[in-house]
Amino acid sequence: MCGPAQRDPDQRPRHLVQQPERGVTAPARPATSGQADRFRTGVRYVDYLATGDESILDEAFTPDFHDHVSGLRGTDMMGVVRGWLARSFADLTYEVHAVTSGDGLVMIWFTSSGTHIGSEFPQFAGREPTGRRIVAEAVHIFRVRDGKLAEHWAVRDDLGVLRQLDGGDPPGERPQRPV
Length: 179
What we know:
Elements: E1 15-17, H1 33-51, H2 55-60, E2 61-67, H3 76-88, E3 89-102, E4 105-116, E5 133-145, E6 148-156, H4 158-165
Parallel strand pairs: 2-6
Antiparallel strand pairs: 1-3, 3-4, 4-5, 5-6
């Protein structure tokens, strides 16, 4: 991430996916062509979540993709995750706040939001649909191999989602953070 901490947060670059049918665009000015390729490849993860376009799996993921969050391997697990999302949240949108890369890794910080209609994710199991608008931030880190996403780690705000499902922490403006 770049820029001085005192930078006006309203002037930070936005990499926006609020209309899933439009997909995602990579940042406009990456430092190198290799970095640009990693940015585009990394953002394809959010494209897949937003659209469910199965061709992205072959295009952007290695066949032996390793998701360290679930411990599962292969791209089939992405369909499972997308199914959980679709059956848990209506009108999902994604806003990418930052993408950075180096040393064969790409990091994406984004917010997803949607209306809670089910509890397919294991960590939300047994909860009745609330109809509440839920906002969740996450950072996803990928190892890129041969131009494709090969490994995945994530830091998600699951506790914040659980609090929102229970009626606390109503979603509002995302805290402004220096970028």
